[in-house]
């Protein structure tokens, strides 16, 4: 057993050599390159440019500091969720090579030929293949970890294995609680002050958000990634890979489907406010396509899996399966709405809005994100298909 210590770049070099990934004689370079909210991320490479990633959990949240202690167990959760999802969707899950619960480290493949989707979307690039691939990845990872497929006993053991109270509490607070009340963690751009105050007195909205939070707290439908947004997707021109599963736990399927959709729509709000003409039209159309594809492919494939591969005799009932899919749809739209709001006025912002230099354009983008978030949460029960979401986006934002 090796006691935990926070790694320096030199420690990482010794560590990967000890694990046998590189020859002792090889000259290695190591650089810390983490830009996320929580962890250290190191890239180690040799002179032939062969490289690996070593991710280490800190005993606190990196973006806040030591005043926000955080469990190291999140490294275990991350590694084990990625390994479980990789068994089901190998092509679209980053390859975990090794993990160490004591040092809270994960060694994984370096996706250096890929880019983080969020940064690319902000720069105006398009990834039309991502919607279909992510929809399929979600259908498989969620179905095969649910009661439809696992025995009730095995599923309960998995629920216990993936209990993740610290990281769930971050989501419970930042997603569902803070944005709807006064809280020092909120980060509100001055032009959004008035709109954020209005949220706090919208009784219907507060009741809907409470319902979505209660489902997040109680509904152990499937092994979620738990934080699947455009910043946790590595993309190239033909494929995509999911990283960063430390928020994983057994929760409602719609949370994993709604989070990326909320993030495509955040980019929609930002892009519509900062661009014009053909560039804007093309980008918004691409975002509408990937939103549509994510839901439609998810719905089609999970329906086929429920019809053909459900093991539980009672859950094989087609009427129940149709009702189940409808409830996942409503959750998906609700969680997408919550993501729009919390990324605009909560603690953890996104570059889709924050990188807009022009104050007026940013004000418009943020107002639209809040209005669309509210509409998705409040009106979702009247929606029939994903087209209704896109119609609302067009009505509020344009495009
Ligand atoms: C303190 S962590 C803030 C956010 O970063 C992560 O990526 C999650 O989205 C979390 O809500
Ligand atoms: Mg993350």
Automatic annotation (TrEMBL):
Q: Which InterPro entries match?
A: Aminoglycoside_PTrfase, Kinase-like_dom_sf, Methylthioribose_kinase
EC number(s): the record gives 2.7.1.100
Fetch the Gene3D superfamilies from UniProt.
Answer: 3.90.1200.10, Phosphorylase Kinase, domain 1 (3.30.200.20)
Q: Which SUPFAM superfamilies match?
A: Protein kinase-like (PK-like)
The keyword Lyase is annotated on this UniProt entry: no
| Top-level EC class as recorded in UniProt | transferase
Domain of life assignment? Bacteria
Q: Which residues form the Aminoglycoside phosphotransferase domain?
A: 143-259
Query: What GO molecular-function term can you cite, just one?
Result: S-methyl-5-thioribose kinase activity
Keyword annotations from UniProtKB, A to Z = ATP-binding, Kinase, Nucleotide-binding, Transferase
Q: What family is this?
A: Belongs to the methylthioribose kinase family.
Assembly with partners or alone: Homodimer.
Return the protein name.
S-methyl-5-thioribose kinase
Supply the source organism for this entry.
Answer: Marinomonas phaeophyticola
UniProt lineage: Bacteria, Pseudomonadati, Pseudomonadota, Gammaproteobacteria, Oceanospirillales
């Amino acid at each position: 057993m090796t006691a935990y210590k926070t790694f320096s770049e030199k420690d990482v070099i010794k560590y990967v050599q000890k694990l046998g990934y590189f020859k002792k004689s090889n000259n290695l370079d190591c650089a810390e390159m983490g830009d996320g909210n929580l962890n250290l991320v190191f890239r180690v490479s040799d002179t032939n440019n062969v490289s690996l990633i070593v991710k280490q959990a800190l005993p606190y949240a990196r973006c806040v500091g030591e005043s926000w202690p955080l469990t190291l167990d999140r490294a275990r959760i991350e590694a084990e969720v990625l390994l479980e999802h990789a068994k089901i969707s190998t092509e679209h899950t980053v390859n975990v090579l090794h993990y160490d619960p004591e040092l809270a480290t994960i060694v994984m493949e370096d996706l250096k030929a890929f880019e983080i989707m969020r940064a690319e979307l902000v720069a105006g690039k398009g990834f039309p293949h991502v919607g279909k691939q992510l929809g399929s990845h979600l259908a498989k990872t969620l179905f095969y970890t649910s009661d439809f497929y696992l025995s009730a006993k095995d599923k309960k053991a998995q629920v216990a294995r993936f209990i993740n109270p610290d990281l769930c509490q971050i989501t419970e607070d930042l997603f569902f609680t803070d944005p709807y009340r006064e809280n020092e963690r909120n980060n509100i751009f001055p032009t959004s002050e008035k709109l954020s105050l209005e949220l706090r007195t919208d009784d219907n909205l507060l009741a809907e958000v409470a319902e979505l939070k209660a489902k997040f707290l109680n509904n152990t439908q499937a092994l979620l990634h738990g934080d699947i947004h455009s910043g946790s997707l590595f993309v190239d021109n033909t494929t995509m890979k999911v990283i960063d599963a430390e928020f994983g736990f057994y929760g409602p399927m719609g949370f994993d489907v709604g989070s990326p959709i909320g993030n495509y729509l955040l980019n929609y709000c930002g892009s519509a406010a900062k661009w014009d003409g053909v560039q804007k039209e093309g980008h918004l159309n691409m975002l509408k396509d990937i939103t549509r594809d994510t839901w439609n492919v998810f719905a089609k494939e999970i329906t086929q899996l429920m019809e053909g591969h459900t093991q539980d005799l009672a859950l094989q009932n087609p009427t129940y399966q149709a009702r189940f899919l409808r409830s996942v749809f409503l959750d998906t739209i609700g969680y997408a709405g919550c993501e729009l709001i919390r990324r605009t006025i909560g603690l953890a912002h996104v570059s889709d809005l924050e990188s807009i230099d022009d104050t007026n354009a940013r004000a418009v983008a943020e107002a639209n994100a809040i209005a669309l978030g509210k509409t998705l949460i409040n009106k979702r029960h009247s929606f029939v298909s994903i087209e209704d979401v896109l119609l609302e986006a067009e009505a509020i934002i344009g495009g």
